[in-house]
Amino acid sequence: MFENIRLSFQGIFSHKIRSLLTMLGIIIGIAAIIAIVSTIKGTNEQIKNNLIGSGNNTVKIKLQQGDMEVDFNWTGVPDGVPVITAEEMQRLNEIPEVEVCSAFRLHTYVDNIFYNDTIIDAPSVYGIDENYFATAGYQISRGKGFSPEDYKGFSKVCIIDETVVNSLFGSEDPVGKMIDIEQEPFRIIGVAAETSDFEPVINSMDDYYMLMYSRDNGNKIFIPSEAWPIIFRYDEPQSVIARAINTDSMTIVGKTAADLMNEYLTVGEKSNISYKSEDLLKQAQQMQNLSSSTNKMLIWIASISLLVGGIGVMNIMLVSVTERTREIGLKKALGARRGRILFQFLTEASVLTSIGGIIGVGAGIGLAQIVSKMAEVPVAISTPAIVVSVVFSMAVGIIFGFIPSVKAARLNPIDALRYE
C-alpha cells in the first residue's frame, strides 16, 4: 500500500506539468462546488438570521380568526376564550423544547398617551408578567424593573423603550416622570432595551422588506399585567411568547404550545378562532427554498467539470500504461500478479485526483471569499462539503482509473517486454 503511494507520487512529480493539467478539471470542479455550497449556506443563514434574529429563538402564539390576528380593540373578547391560568403556563413551560415562556397582553396603536403636551405617535402597550423581559430578550438599561409588589398591588407604573424616550423626553431622564395612558397617570420606573446585539445584513431590497416585515420598530410601553384593567377596563385573553432551546426547535415549540392552548378554548368550530404560532423559521425556510432549484442546477453544472476531469484522468492513465508497458511486462515476468498491477495503477489515479481535490478545496475557499467580497454576499464554509469533495475526488480517480488499470493488469508479459 505505502509502496504504491510512494510510486504514485514519484510518477506524478516526474511529469509535473502533465499531472497538473490532468488535475485541473478536478481542481476547477471541486473549487466551484465548494464556493457554490458555501455561498448558498451563507445566504440561507443570512435569511434565517435577518428574519428570526441571532440568538433570539422566540415564538409568539396569538389568538387568530382564520389567518387574521384577533384585535380586541375592534372585536371585543370572543366568547369561549378564557384567560390563561397558572396551570396552563406551567404546562407550557414543561414542553421539552421550551427554555422559558411568558404570557402578555398587547394593544397596538394606542392613541391617548402623552407627556405634558407631547403625544407619542402610534405606541404599543404591553401588559406583561414577571418572565416577559427574560423571554423576549429585554434588559433594564435605566431605572428598575417591576417588583412583585407592583404586580400584587395593581401599581400604576410602567417601563418604556428607547423609542418612547426619544419621542417624549429627548435628552431628559424619563425615570420618575408621569405619563398619561388613556387618561390614567402612570409613573415611569425604568427603560428597557433589547439584549441582542444582532445586526441584520441587508444586501438587497428583498432583504430590506423581509426585515421590515419581521421586526418591530419600538414605541413600546410595558405595564404589569395586573394593571391592565385599570386602562382597558377588563381582562383580555393573553398571547404567549416562548423561547425555544435552539432555532431548529422553534417550529415544534410553536405548534405544541398552540395545540395545548387550544385545549382550553370552548369556541364553536364555525367561529374559526384558535391560537396559532408565528412560525418565522418556517417563513425563513420557504424563502430559502425559493432558490433551491437554481442552486441545485449550479451544483450540477459545476459537477460537469468533475466529469471532464475524470475523463482527463482516464486519458492520462491510458497514456501512462502505454509508456510503462515494458515496466509492466518486467514486473509480471518477475511474478507480479494482476491484482498487484491493478492496485498500483488505481492507487496512482486516486492519489492524482485526491491531490487535485485538496488543491480544489483550498481554491474553493479562496473563491468563496472573493465572491463574498465582490458580490457582497455572505459565505459559510461547509465542512461536510469539503470532506465529501475530497472523498468524491478520490472516487473519481478510482472510477476513471479502473479501465486503464485493467488494461495494464491484462497485458501479456511477453508482448509487454517486446513492446517498443
Short description:
By secondary structure, the chain is an alpha+beta fold.
Structural commentary:
This protein has helices spanning about 1-15, 15-50, 70-75, 85-95, 130-135, 150, 160-170, 205-215, 230, 250-260, 280-290, 290-325, 325-335, 340-375, 385-410, 415-420; strands spanning about 60-65, 70, 100-105, 115, 120, 125-130, 140-145, 155-160, 180, 185-195, 220-225, 240-245, 275. With about 425 residues, it is α+β, with helices and mostly antiparallel strands. It folds into 2 domains: about 1-50 and about 290-420, no CATH class; about 60-245, no CATH class. Strands 1, 2, 3, 4, 5, 6, 7, 8, 9, 10, 11, 12 and 13 form a 13-stranded mixed β-sheet that branches. Strand 9 and strand 10 (about 185-195) form a beta hairpin. The longest helix is centred in the last third of the chain and has 38 residues, at about 340-375. It is elongated, with a radius of gyration of 33 Å.
List the helices and strands and how they pair.
Blueprint: H1 2-14, H2 16-52, E1 58-65, E2 68-69, H3 72-75, H4 86-93, E3 98-107, E4 113-115, E5 118-119, E6 124-128, H5 132-136, E7 138-143, H6 148-152, E8 157-161, H7 162-168, E9 178-181, E10 184-194, H8 205-214, E11 220-224, H9 228-232, E12 239-244, H10 250-262, E13 273-277, H11 280-289, H12 292-323, H13 325-333, H14 338-375, H15 383-409, H16 413-418
Index terms:
single chain; about 425 residues; alpha+beta; 2 domains; 13-stranded mixed sheet; 13 strands
Relative helix content = 40-55%
Radius of gyration, in Å, reads 33 Å
On the 0-100 scale, what is the average pLDDT?
Answer: 79
User: Could you say how many structural domains there are in total?
Assistant: 2
Overall number of strands: 13
Query: What string, H for helix and E for strand, traces the elements in order?
Result: HHEEHHEEEEHEHEHEEHEHEHEHHHHHH
Compute the number of helices.
Answer: 16
